[in-house]
Amino acid sequence: MAHKECVAMILAGGQGSRLGVLTRMVAKPAVPFGAKYRLIDFTLSNCHNSGFDTVGVLTQYQPFALHSYIGIGSPWDLDRNTGGVHILPPFVRSKGGEWYQGTANAIHQNAAFIEQFAPAYVAVLSGDHIYKMDYAKMLAFHKQTGADATIAVIEVPWRETSRFGIMSIDEEARITEFAEKPKQAKSNLASMGVYIFTWEVLRDFLDKDEKDRSSSHDFGKNVIPAMLAAGRRMMAYAFAGYWRDVGTVESLWEANMDLLSDRPELDLYDPNWRIYSINPTQPPHFVATGAKVKRLIASVGCRIFGEVDNAVLFPGVYVGPGAVVKDSVVMHDAYIGKGAAIERAIVGPESVVGDGSQVGLAGEPATAKAITVIGDRSCLTAGSMVPRGATVE
Amino acid sequence: MKDVLGIINLHENEELLKELTRQRPLAAVPFGGRYRLIDFVLSNMVNSGITNVGILVKHKYRSIMDHLRSGKEWDLARKRDGLFVLPPPDHTHYANSIYKGDLEHFHTHIDFLQRSSQGFVIIAGSHTVYNTDYREALRYHQEKQADITIMYKTEPPAPGKQFSLATALTVGGDGRVTDINVSTGRIAGGDISLETFIMRKELLLQIIEDCIARGEYDFVKEGIVKRLGRLRIFGCPFAGYMAKINTVPAYFQANMDLLRPEVWQDLFLKSGQVYTKVKDEPPANYRDQAAVSNVLVANGCVIEGRVENSLLFRSVKVHRGAYVNNCVIMQKGEIGPNAVLENVICDKDVKISAAKRMIGDKNYVMVIEKGMIV
Question: How far apart are CA A320 and CA A89, in angstroms?
Fold first, then answer.
């Protein structure tokens, strides 16, 4: 097998349980985002754009949609003669075999996969974050600083530090302390879950971690603290730009809405850093006479006869005459009937909102900011009323 | 349909498309927001189950090669059969060589025809745009025990409608074609040929050999018309939407037709999807000041101005205060702030500067050539 300098391992087995019905049938990395993408498109596109051509995708929870989506990786130019994309679900060995027990265990179970390429470095990435990042620059930083591990960090607001793994660093950006979700943070540099390791070093620590019965085999909780404690050279690589881990319905909705501002922080229109995805075969979308649209992101195949204000429409969405869609995300092939009204909602793929239905309009004052969710393939009959913040399965 | 070989014949008259075909063949003319003309016939063939397609490329074919590449988007990058680009005869590359006709081109690739395993051929051009499943036409061909079947659409004459450089069939009650009029001017209507022919491959080979042996080089006029008496030639009626795109007005009208939801439905979805080269554009983005009505918009567009009754191809930008009405703006067009465009076709990469006014006439649209900065 050809030698590769760096192998990227994408962790894509997570459930994303706080996304509720949206991840009932698909793993979190397969959740649709931004009118035509799935979350994993960002990491895969970053790999391609950074020149990383050898990628393992570790899957476990509800993998079918993800497996068929990634396929042989051609949309991300990862169908390669040497390297390319490899889907790595848990597997059975001659003596047993087990589910991935944690992020570190998942990489450990695939050590043989990594060794085939005899890499000097391994990048460990999350498959469910939204950001554009040049991993090649981070790798150059890792090599230049002679690090054993490099962790990408981003400044987060101080009030949110308790949600993240927080790094304290010295003047040369060497990590001095790591605190997972601290109550009293000493820094506001949060780990993005993007790591580059010198493979030899990581392999040893994974082996040690594997033998530790008390470990939960997690990078953030176990491996990183162990490496720090052992005095390994751990560097922080500062990232500036848009980065979101959309763990909840609210944050997924917000990240979609972020795209609608006049100058979005996440620029999808940069031809030099394109985000790739599977492109559905559909005609350009149609906005009819009498329709009203503004602050809209829409993909192919949509037909819009009603009013759309501040919304994200995925391929093949139909918005009937007199329908009003506001502050919402409508996923692929959903049908919004005549005169229906939708506000602050996420409408799942292939669902039907019957004529004259009202989704997310009325409710208690306490739910004023709540997001209403219509699960995939749900069918609301004509005149249905779905209160604000409700979830329809 | 594994037994049918598809042949796309790009020997088409493109003179009347003027600027639009200066740098590209008719088949590569962008159409419908994200397609090129060849996508429609090629998708028809693929959706009909045809797995072997040869394309007779005549000239200026870089854009076609770039568009089709391996044929992957049409599912034609196959181990056996698939997509074959058939270049023109060698001598056409030299100065002073005389173009004789498409049959010479067929003859150049007689090996390809003989070697292909299929028993039937469907020969079609790229400038007749329609969506069909050829299985129906093949069934008709076999039921009629025809030697050759020509697909046609009945177009009753209507005010303001005419067909340039079209071929009209005279079809008898039994479906038999009794006359073929290859018009060099305009006709008001009638049974207009879709330039789509079905026959056994053996018959095609025989026609090619016979014609070449007699110094005849025109497939339709000499290969087909001259055999009207000798062969069973039938017309197979087609009922869906059809556009013949061989003049600038016809091109413009066919694009505008797509703004009718029933045509959109018919041409893009009826018998199968229309495939094209993937560009990975981000979704279209309508900003706060956008005001649009009756438009077809492709991915990658950013709209901040007013757009009405128009088609925007991929990655078109319409800046604030701009007004675009009754226009076709091709890929990467940019309409500057406060510019006004009416009845205009902008070819690819056209930039209209701020506050410019470009007004064509409803009956004579203005064409702005590829890459122009106005």
Answer: 42
Distance from CA of A287 to the nearest CA of B (A): 5
3-state secondary structure of B241: coil
> Can you spell out the DSSP letters for A355-379?
TT-EESSS--GGGTTPPEEE-TT-E
Residue pLDDT, tens place only, A177-213? 999 889 999 999 999 999 999 999 999 999 999 999 9
Mutate one of A286, A289, A292 to test the B interface: name it (highest B CB count within 10 A).
A286
Residues 6+ apart with CB under 8 A from B71: B53, B77, B78, B82, B83
pTM attached to this predicted model: 0.94
pLDDT digits (tens, 9 = 90+) for A372-391: 999 999 999 999 999 999 99
Q: Judge if ipTM > 0.90.
A: yes
Query: CA dihedral defined by B335, B336, B340, B344, rounded to 10 degrees?
Result: -30
Other C-beta atoms closer than 10 Å to the C-beta of B269 total: 14
Q: How far apart are CA B16 and CA B32, in angstroms?
A: 19
Helix (H, G, I), strand (E, B) or coil at B185: coil
Q: Which of A274, A299, A303 sits opposite B283 (nearest CB)?
A: A299
Per residue in A20-77, pLDDT (tens digit) is 999 999 999 999 999 999 999 999 999 999 999 999 999 999 999 999 999 999 999 9
CA distance B36 to B57: 15
Under 8 Å between Cβ of A329 and A308: no
∠ CA(A303), CA(A306), CA(A307), 5° rounding? 115
A130 to chain B, closest Cα gap in Å? 15
All structural domains of chain B, each given as residue ranges with its CATH number in brackets, are 4-268 (3.90.550.10), 285-368 (2.160.10.10)
Q: Comparing C-alpha atoms, which of A81, A115, A79 is closest to residue A3?
A: A115
